[in-house]
Amino acid sequence: QVQLVESGGGLVQAGGSLRLSCAASGRTFSMAAMGWFRQAPGKEREFVTSTRWPYGNTYYADSVKGRFTISRDIVKNAVYLQMDSLKPEDTAVYYCASDFDDDPGSWRYGMDYWGKGTLVTVSS
């Protein structure tokens, strides 16, 4: 199993930036991907971005492309989400996730392991 712990959420004004961090522990040697999902109030959880582990290929949802950047630190087993030009509709609980299956096409539908989430609130 993999344990994931997110940090860095908070309140930010529209147009601002925020950086989320996620630290992985456990069977990190089996990870094929890490990523971020989010769930806004009253909505289903949705894919935000993922990165192939450890190679670094990245994938983004259209809604965040050009504004959000995922990066990784292989030594620290950590992944980061830099969020710029934030909008009120980005308000959500953001979840870090990891997957053991090296199948990029499947990651946006869900992953094997999840963190508890961190709340991001963007005010207008």
Describe this structure in words.
The protein has 124 residues and is mostly beta strands. The protein has one helix at 104-107, and strands at 2-7, 10-13, 18-26, 33-39, 46-52, 58-60, 68-73, 78-83, 92-99, 113-114, 118-123. Helices cover 3% and strands 52% of the residues.
Note the topology:
Layout: E1 2-7, E2 10-13, E3 18-26, E4 33-39, E5 46-52, E6 58-60, E7 68-73, E8 78-83, E9 92-99, H1 104-107, E10 113-114, E11 118-123
Parallel strand pairs: 2-11
Antiparallel strand pairs: 1-3, 3-8, 4-5, 4-9, 5-6, 7-8, 9-10, 9-11
Care to give the gist of this entry?
With 124 residues, the chain is mainly beta. It has one helix at 104-107, and strands spanning 2-7, 10-13, 18-26, 33-39, 46-52, 58-60, 68-73, 78-83, 92-99, 113-114, 118-123.
Order of helices and strands: EEEEEEEEEHEE
* Helical/strand content category: mainly beta
Q: What proportion strand?
A: over 45%
Main sheet summary: 7 strands, mixed
Return Rg in Å.
13 Å
List keywords for this structure.
124 residues, mainly beta, 1 helix
